Amino acid sequence: MKFAYDGTCFSGYARQPRQRTVEQTLIDILIDQRVFDDARMSCFRTASRTDRGVSALGNVCAFDTTVSKDEVFSTLTKHISDVFIYGICLVTPDFYPRHAERREYRYYLRKNSLDVDRMLSAAGLFTGEHNFQNFARVEPLKNPIRNIENIIISEKRGFLVLDFYAQTFLWNQIRRIVSALKKAGEGILSETSIRQALRHPERRVDFQLVEPKPLILRDVMYDFSFEYLLKYKKRLHDIENRILASL
């Protein structure tokens, strides 16, 4: 299933005791609507676990159920919740949602007096394959090498819109890269410093990270198509505009 949510309505994505999270809300909906009885037994899995405050327009989950696809879709798309379910697809039993072909993230940054040309030039340093040890929160035994396909910077209503494209991202990777790009646009961080941090991950530096609220997981893509709810794009547009208006 493909679903969307405003991250500010939840205490993060992953299930936590006594906290209202996206994952728990989604599982509760599936159980209440009798799609399955138990998340673990039904192999419930998610494509991306977004940080607290981060929103999504195209996250994906998968699970086993004895209910037909059409019945699941009809039931869940009528359910009113802060989690908007709008896409569905029947997949093979070995499908694992984390193994996506591409993820697309967007970050809204207030333009103010940022030098866009400097940011565009600095963004080019991050594309391609690099060791992002200095630009992510890398968990033990996690490979810090990732390949960013592209970073596109545009303008919208007084904001710079930073779109990131890659198969996978590390924890906090985008927020740390955006922080570095912002500092470059402010003229307080040179391209040389960024280049050295990428080339020499063993020399630890910390360029901090920006706040999570303006970050949106726009889509998770696979080698198949989803069946979508009619007029779902308008609802996604409304969610994104609501997030933007709150920044």
| Percent in helix | 25-40%
Q: Main beta sheet: strand number and arrangement?
A: 10 strands, mixed
Q: How many DSSP H or I helices?
A: 6
Write the CATH architecture name of the largest domain: 2-Layer Sandwich
> Rg from C-alpha positions?
19 Å
Record field, number of beta strands: 10
How much of the polypeptide forms β-strand, as a percent range?
Answer: 25-35%
**Tally of structural domains:** 2
SSE string = EHEEHEEHEEEHHEEH
Mean pLDDT: 95
- In CATH, the homologous superfamily of the largest domain goes by the name Pseudouridine synthase I, catalytic domain, N-terminal subdomain
Task: Give the class-level CATH name of the largest domain.
Answer: Alpha Beta
Q: Span between N and C termini?
A: 29 Å
Given as residue ranges, the uncertain stretches (5+ residues, pLDDT < 50) are none
Basic shape: globular
Explain what the structure shows:
- The protein is about 25% helix and about 25% strand.
- By secondary structure, the chain is an alpha+beta fold.
- It has 2 domains: about 1-100 and about 220-245, Alpha-Beta Plaits; about 100-200, Pseudouridine synthase I, catalytic domain, C-terminal subdomain (Alpha-Beta Plaits).
- Strands 1, 2, 3, 4, 5, 6, 7, 8, 9 and 10 form a 10-stranded mixed β-sheet that branches.
- Helix 3 (about 115-125) runs antiparallel to helix 4 (about 175-185) and helix 3 (about 115-125) runs parallel beside helix 5 (about 190-200).
